Amino acid sequence: NNTEKRSFEAVRLDKLVEEAIQQIVFVADQKKIDIGFELAPACVSGDTLMLRDLIDNLVDNALRYSPVGASVTVRCREAGDRVEFFVEDTGPGIPEAEREAVFSRYRRLDVKVPGTGLGLAIVHEIVTLHDATVSIGSGAGGKGTTFTVSFPRFDPDASITAGEEVDAA
Ligand code: ATP
Ligand code: MG
């Protein structure tokens, strides 16, 4: 676990999410999905490539499983000693009985939509490596799906006093 954390650095999650949305917004346009975001500055300690993969998988799912005309909202914020990342959609939802199982490899609910069934297993692995948690709920008004990822908040200033170089940019 420690060797895997050697690549960890201070990551501005909000900026990473913004980049991810910019690159996937054409998919939303094609499906006439309204993609919105509320991104407050939020810093975590992590592996940038893995975190980007986590964001991409959750946003890809929200767009892929939601019908034409749906809406997807992506949020991140600091909350106390946590950083929270949410992806909410107005799609078909994930039944409560499936909310653990979908993190297993090859577990797929809608076989009409193409996919491999690995995305959420990878998300779960990345979450574990970052000492984070992931949970599935319903979306706004009890419809659709919300994925919530909660990370330990990283305080770049605290780490400087601990003798670690951090790029504040
Ligand atoms: P891939 O490996 O390409 O991501 P996948 O999307 O099928 O394939 P997962 O991302 O692991 O695999 O998702 C597992 C299953 O969970 C999906 O097949 C889908 O049935 C369900 N699912 C995931 N996200 C959502 C969502 N936002 N709304 C509804 N169902 C979802
Ligand atoms: Mg997927």
Question: Keywords for this structure?
Answer:
169 residues, 5-stranded mixed sheet, alpha+beta, 31% helix, binds adenosine-5'-triphosphate, histidine kinase
Task: Describe the secondary structure blueprint for this structure.
Elements (H helix, E strand, L loop, with lengths): L8 E4 H18 L3 E6 L3 E4 L1 H18 L5 E9 L2 E8 L29 H11 L3 E6 L6 E8 L3 H6 L8
Parallel strand pairs: 2-4
Antiparallel strand pairs: 1-3, 4-5, 5-7, 6-7
Helix pairs in contact: 1-2, 2-3
Structure description:
- The protein has four helices and seven strands.
- Strand 4 (71-79) and strand 5 form a beta hairpin.
- The chain has helices at 13-30, 48-65, 119-129, 156-161; strands at residues 9-12, 34-39, 43-46, 71-79, 82-89, 133-138, 145-152.
- The protein has 169 residues and is α+β, with helices and mostly antiparallel strands.
- The strands form two sheets. The protein has a five-stranded mixed β-sheet with strand order 2-4-5-7-6. The protein has a two-stranded antiparallel ribbon with strand order 1-3.
- 31% of the residues lie in helices and 27% in strands.
- The chain is globular and about 45 Å long.
- The longest helix is centred in the N-terminal third of the chain and has 18 residues, at 13-30.
- The mean pLDDT is 92.
- The structure holds adenosine-5'-triphosphate (ATP) and magnesium ion.
- It is found in: Cell inner membrane.
- It comes from Noviherbaspirillum denitrificans.
- Residues 1-155 form the Histidine kinase domain.
- This is histidine kinase.
